[in-house]
Amino acid sequence: VPRASASAVAFGLGLFSGKGSLGHGRHRAFSVVTESRASDIWLRFYDTCQTYK
Is 44 inside a domain boundary? Predict the structure, then answer.
């Protein structure tokens, strides 16, 4: 889910800014793990919710 991943990365960069040892911005390494688009029923509710359809 590319948009959710990009949002998670932006959040993590802000959250850990100045708290690490990487580069001039003192960034900290972190990982973002996402599910496949097919199993993401929360972000794609319009594909799985009968009421919405």
Answer: yes
Per the structure, the complete domain to which residue 24 belongs is given by: 2-48
| CA atoms of 17 and 19, how far apart (whole Å) | 5
- The per-residue pLDDT of the chain, averaged, comes to 82
Of 47 and 21, the one with more pLDDT: 21
d(CA 19, CA 29): 10
Asked if residue 41 is part of any domain, the answer here is: yes
User: Does 36 reside within a domain?
Assistant: yes
pLDDT value at position 1? Answer: 64
* CA dihedral for 25, 16, 3, 35, sign (positive or negative): positive
Whole-model pTM over 0.85: no
